[in-house]
Design goal:
The complex is a heterodimer of chains A (493) and B (306).
Chain A: H1 2-17, E1 27-32, H2 47-53, E2 61-63, E3 69-71, E4 79-82, E5 85-89, H3 104-115, E6 130-137, E7 140-145, H4 152-155, H5 164-167, E8 182-188, E9 192-197, E10 210-215, H6 219-227, E11 233-234, E12 247-252, E13 255-261, H7 271-279, H8 283-291, E14 295-297, H9 321-331, E15 337-342, H10 350-363, E16 367-372, H11 375-382, E17 391-397, H12 404-411, H13 423-433, H14 438-454, E18 458-460, E19 462-470, E20 474-475, E21 490-491
Helix pairs in contact in A: 7-9, 12-13, 13-14
Chain B: H1 2-30, H2 33-37, H3 44-54, H4 60-72, H5 86-121, H6 126-140, H7 143-157, H8 169-199, H9 202-209, H10 214-252, H11 258-267, H12 271-299
Helix pairs in contact in B: 1-12, 5-6, 5-8, 5-10, 5-12, 6-8, 7-8, 7-10, 8-10, 10-11, 10-12, 11-12
Classes of the chains: A alpha+beta (493), B mainly alpha (306).
Chain lengths: 493, 306
């Protein structure tokens, strides 16, 4: 009797078990590492949220997969009407997914909402030069800035357009409505978010009718879900697993690991020691060993080649341990102790990178004191300008792909992470921030880069690639800015 | 009886208060959510403004008073991470964790009791040896690794079960199994040792001599006597799983439950949500323990709880 019942029970479980579906024929499944905190695109600075909302909302300016700035909801490039006012013409015939028209009034509303101090957006620092926006007529928008702001067009690539009526309602963060190619369908908290194609999308209905974002924080599990056919795309694929997945894509990413050096502590206060610390590191070997070749060597500056302000004449310190030893001997710093702070698990292979760099320093005669601390303590030390550490590992994330943010934070002597006291660099970064002529602006950054390079204010490391794993059937091209745009994905038969 | 309940609940209340105060004070002393929530390049002024908006710039006793006020209205605060009432978030994830935990414990008990009893009937025999060895192996394997191994085997290689998430009965199998295995092995060992003691007793020999079937001896008579230590362990296992192991297993299997929620809240330094999770779990554990105490009295009338 019990045996019969047990068998029946087991049979039921097996049958219902078979009812679960792998990636269904027409749904593209994407496994991401973290669940969005909200679906309001203007409130948080959250990568998980952007992965989903980049498909529901749009911006005035966009970038193509290789990073070039272009038009999105704007019909023409923004132009200056006076030093602190920009004017943009908007695309006509676009509506929000709830029927509200996308016009200059909606655009002005969107801009004013994100900069409103009462709204308390975490994205404030991306837009801190914008003072307001107004609609001149139905298709013309004016944006005012606090001073000359040459990168306003770039900022407009980050500012999402929201519908004035729906955004004012309480449930907007759980029921997002934008102008984008996909509409929000449902959000199973803790599990997944489903989007469906927007039939009325102004640029043509996208190829895939449905997209499902699943939240799987554990990497091993994410990889398994790809290998078992349950999803089509996974992010943050570890380089050592590239061989195992049906398809993989790699592209230069926006994350730049670098070590900030103090210019006054012993022994790193001596420029020869700092240069030696650069010569000691074999960056190519690190890229190969830690990232499976999926990393580019940083060219002596905190910018990737496609970013604004890049200096093509600065090539980076080559690997030359003999020269490093000679410089250290010259400076009389053999056996000197250098404290190096790092993190574990915050960024890809952060701990391994710090330990490898410390080992190469040891090989040229320095005694590194590696301190891998948890993120809270790391931040405490980071924000303590009185007690600058000798060496500090960090990763700069350059979403806007422009020199101003990272340079203001790391190159400028008053920047939040800059342990240097160089007046000239500070001057250059300040002037460049408000310089309207792009060529003059680029020249200023390039000069700052040359100085920082000669002074070896940093140990320049790598530019990590974004690596993705995909199913056999997915057709897609990854982007330099790391955005997952489902409208560019399709399923091959 | 009524007095017994009151005493138990009073002790439980003390535990809950102690846990709440400790977590509240310690989290505010050691962590700073603002630094984690804003991007690294945000300025000091941005941070100060953000901290004030969250109410984190006030002194700890003031914040605590505010918290207690909220508790009276069953308002556990607003999650810093999700900007929604913390209690709502916890309640969303609680049922699915309970489903997982109860399934695991029930499964573990259903397998462990018979196996332990069978092994105990012939100590040193074939079944016994195999059971003990397998149990020790299963106990030595870290749950994290076991979970991933099961995923690799059943989801990737065999394609029989889903690798992650929750959505059907099939999704429950692997996570419940991963949670159940260490519990099951401990229960097997305790059941076995208890049953060996009972089966050696005089009254058992008498029953067998009188011709009672082995099945009745074990299940009806010896079993009930061996039940108390087993019940103790099983209830302890339930609490350990519910308040601990779910963190690892839910993360591995992307199971949208309380354990994974707690981990994410800690990572994001969402003090409010961490507090709410701890409070709800503490209350459930206390209530559960009271119920188990009463179960003892039902099983063994000789037990009188002081």
């Amino acid at each position: 009797m019990t045996f019969n019942r047990t068998m029946l029970g087991a049979a039921t479980i097996v049958v219902t078990g078979l009812a679960w579906s792998s990636a269904s024929a027409q749904t593209i499944g994407i496994a991401i590492g973290s669940e969005p905190t909200t679906l309001d695109p203007q409130l948080r600075d959250d990568g998980g949220e952007r992965q989903v909302t980049d498909n529901i909302f749009e911006t005035l300016m966009t970038r193509d997969p290789s990073g070039a700035l272009g038009l999105g909801l704007a019909a023409s490039e923004p132009v200056l009407v006076d030093p602190t006012t920009w004017e943009v013409t908007l695309r006509e015939g676009v509506t929000f997914q709830n029927g509200e028209p996308f016009d200059a009034a909606a655009a002005a509303f969107s801009v004013n909402r994100v900069i409103d101090s009462g709204f308390n957006s975490e994205q404030g620092s991306y837009f801190n030069t914008i003072t307001g926006a107004e609609a001149v007529d139905a298709t013309t928008l004016r944006v005012t800035t606090s001073g000359p702001d040459p990168i306003l067009p770039t900022r407009l690539y980050w500012l999402k357009m929201v519908p004035p009526i729906a955004a004012a309602e309480a449930g907007f963060a759980e029921n997002p409505i934008g102008t984008g190619p996909y509409k929000f369908d449902n959000w199973r908290r803790g599990s997944s978010i489903t989007l469906v194609a927007n039939e009325g999308y102004w640029d043509g209905v996208p190829a895939a009718p449905e997209v499902e974002f699943r939240f799987i924080p554990e990497f091993g599990t994410r990889l398994s879900s790809l290998l078992s056919g349950e999803v089509d795309l996974i992010t943050n694929l570890l380089p050592e697993f590239v061989e195992q997945v049906p398809q993989s894509f790699a592209v230069t990413g926006v994350e730049l690991p670098i070590i900030l050096l103090s210019d006054e502590n012993e022994p790193v206060g001596d420029v020869r020691v700092r240069q030696a610390l650069n010569y000691a590191v074999d960056k190519e070997a690190l890229a190969e060993a830690l990232y499976g070749g999926y990393a580019d060597v940083m060219q002596g500056q905190l910018l990737a080649p496609s970013y604004f302000g890049f200096n093509p004449d600065v090539k980076g310190y080559p690997y030359d341990p003999e020269k490093a030893k000679a410089l250290i001997a010259e400076a009389g710093a053999e056996g000197a102790e250098v404290t190096l702070y790092g993190t574990a698990g915050r960024w890809l292979k952060d701990r391994e990178l710090v330990e490898a760099v410390a080992a190469s320093w040891e090989a040229v005669g320095i005694k590194p004191d590696v301190r891998i601390v948890d993120f809270s303590e790391y931040l405490d030390r980071f924000f303590d300008p009185e007690n600058r550490q000798d060496a500090f590992f960090t990763v700069s994330s350059n979403e806007l792909m422009d020199a101003d943010r990272p340079f203001s934070a790391y190159y400028h002597k008053d920047g939040i992470g800059a342990p240097n006291h160089n007046e000239r660099i500070a001057e250059l970064v300040d002037s460049a921030r408000t310089e309207a002529d792009p060529e003059a602006r680029a020249a200023m950054y390039q000069e700052a880069i040359q100085i920082a390079f000669d002074e070896a204010l940093y140990v320049f490391l790598l530019n990590i690639n974004d690596v993705y794993g995909a199913s056999e059937r997915l057709v897609w091209e990854p982007r330099v800015d790391g955005k997952l745009l489902a409208k560019t994905m399709s399923i091959s038969e | 009886m009524g007095r017994l309940v009151a005493v138990r609940l009073w002790h439980g209340l003390i535990v809950i208060v102690a846990v709440t105060v400790t977590v509240f004070v310690v989290t505010r002393l050691i962590s700073n959510p603002v630094d984690v929530m804003l991007p690294l390049e945000a300025s000091a002024a941005d941070r100060a403004a953000f901290a004030a908006a969250l109410g984190l710039d006030r002194s700890i006793p003031v914040q605590f008073l505010d918290y207690v006020n909220g508790l009276a209205r069953l308002d556990l605060g607003t999650s810093l991470w999700q900007d929604r009432p913390a209690l709502t978030i916890v309640m969303e994830h609680l049922p699915i964790t309970l489903l997982l935990v109860v399934s695991s414990v029930v499964f573990a008990i259903l397998v462990a009791l018979p196996l332990g009893a069978i092994a105990a009937r012939r100590p040193g025999g074939g079944v016994d040896r195999v059971t003990v060895i397998l149990s020790l192996v299963a106990l030595s394997v870290p749950q994290f690794w076991l979970g991933l191994l099961l995923i690799l085997l059943f989801a990737v290689t065999l394609g029989l079960l889903p690798s992650a998430g929750a959505g059907s009965a099939a999704h429950l199998v692997l996570p419940a199994l991963t949670l159940a295995i260490p519990t099951m092995t401990r229960l097997i060992m305790v059941t076995r040792s208890q049953m060996i003691d009972e089966l050696n007793a005089q009254y058992v020999r008498t029953l067998e001599a009188k011709g009672m079937s082995a099945w009745r001896v074990v299940a009806v008579h010896a079993g009930r006597n061996a039940a108390v230590p087993v019940l103790t362990l099983a209830s302890w296992e339930f609490v350990r799983i519910f308040a601990g192991y779910t963190v690892v297993v839910e993360t591995v299997f992307a199971w949208p439950g309380l354990g994974r929620l707690a981990l994410q809240a800690i990572e994001r330094q969402d003090l409010v949500l961490v507090q709410a999770v701890v409070l709800v779990i503490a209350v459930i554990v206390v209530v559960f323990n009271v119920l188990v105490d009463f179960a003892y009295m039902a099983i063994d009338p000789r037990i009188r709880l002081e």
